[in-house]
Amino acid sequence: MELDRRSSRRSKVGLFCNQYIDGFPHLTEALELSMTGALVRRVLGPDVDRACYALELGDGGDSVWLCATPVWRQGPFEAVRFVAQSLSDKLRLADVLGAYGRC
Description:
Blueprint: E1 11-21, E2 24-33, E3 37-42, E4 53-57, E5 64-74, E6 77-83, H1 87-99
Antiparallel strand pairs: 1-2, 1-4, 2-3, 3-6, 4-5, 5-6
């Protein structure tokens, strides 16, 4: 039996975002999102592993920038944990989750 280690519940969002690897944006879809992490699907991008990277949620004007570190990866799917979040990062992420009905 696999143990679920999530510290907060995820909301299903289906939100396109950018995953910045080596400074370049790559299209990613956030399938599930919580205050502490996300389940993402790489749509376009290199098949490389990084210890952490920037994840941009939003349309560029009202984007939420998060530092994400991979927890596990299987094919195009990757679970990430958000690290080093400031209070303003948390509040903006809560606004995004609120738009999907939960935070």
